[in-house]
Request: fold
Amino acid sequence: MPHPPLTAPTLDEEEGLTHTQACMSDQSVLDPARLEAELSQVLDPVFEKPMRAIGSLVSWRVDGTKVHLAIKLPSPSPTIAAKAKRRIEEACRRAGAEAVDFEISIETPMRDVMSDDPIPEVKNIILVMSGKGGVGKSTVATNLALALSRLGHRVGLLDADVYGPSIPTMMGILGHPVGRDGKIAPLERFGIRIMSIGFFLEDEKQAVIWRGPMIHNALQQFLRDVDWGALDFLVLDLPPGTGDVALTMAQRLKVTGVIIVTTPQEVALQDVYKAVSMCKRLNLPILGVVENMSFFVDSAGHKHEIFGKGGGQKVAELANAPLLGQIPLVQAVREQGDAGFPIVIAQPESEVAKVFLSIGEAVIERIARHHFERLGGERLPPSKAPARLRIIR
Ligand SMILES: Nc1ncnc2c1ncn2[C@@H]1O[C@H](COP(=O)(O)OP(=O)(O)O)[C@@H](O)[C@H]1O
Ligand SMILES: [Mg+2]
Reply:
């Protein structure tokens, strides 16, 4: 049976709370002064600063040889929680605790929201872009959205590639969105809310000819008139090239950041560099670079760098942002994309799905750290509302 939480939680849509227990084997006496000293040293798993000083170790209480702690994390990601718990458990054990009981509240960082923001309930907006078509933007956007969702977040996916919408095919969803309370309801698949111009075309293969202002209007509608609801992340799959969509987004609202997708070879880099310099011009923070089609592993286990190497790293250096991950060229990625079951869903235990998950984790951590730095990098803001209780075993 889980222990009762430290403070009685009330229901809240926004925040998550977890409550777990871990048993210690040491038989010793718990020394409160030693416990305080040990806990004061524990570093936050994301910010790598003392949890107590920055406020992510909210409180603790000693009950015999048991310690009850309340902590605050930016994501329900199991990796982050495990890291925090391991560090705290070790500290408690050193002070003589036999059992540790956690109450974890999740506070996903939030971008700045202006008074006229069309989607104020969307905490973060991530643009997936590249200078060039065919490098895997849609594949990355789709699998990243699914990875963030698998890590426990509420996620939406907006197909902003009005020229060649591929999200309906990749997510295996067709249909016509309907109205709901004066807005358009997004379609939903694999737990993700989705909107695409593809849902409105008579014929899937129909060519769409857009000029700048039309794109601007369509995108405005996708933001303002779609009932996205509350989301932790809205991932946007941008059309190739640099321009209209990113510009519209940068003008209309505060974007959390951009993910640049590139392939490893030189020829592709020129276009990517343009995308990087456009981000700088528009003041769009670059969260990181994803190198796609980095290598191919043959049936004998040999690695082949078909498209050369080093492109992702070069772009990352230029962008002054981390290389978030390298995705291998895997036939199943294309096949599952075509079949409407992205690899993160179709083969969740595959190596390539794990790369997408680690990219998701890297994105979350980077966003959390950016947010913390913007707040001064000293202390997390106090919690607004008591959290909803969720029990994770
Ligand atoms: N890592 C990969 N391994 C195998 N095929 C891939 C990979 N990434 C993308 N593809 C395939 O390459 C094609 C182009 O990818 P896509 O995501 O549509 O690119 P973009 O959106 O940049 O035009 C698609 O058929 C996709 O399934
Ligand atoms: Mg695409």
In short: The chain has two domains: 16-107, 122-361.
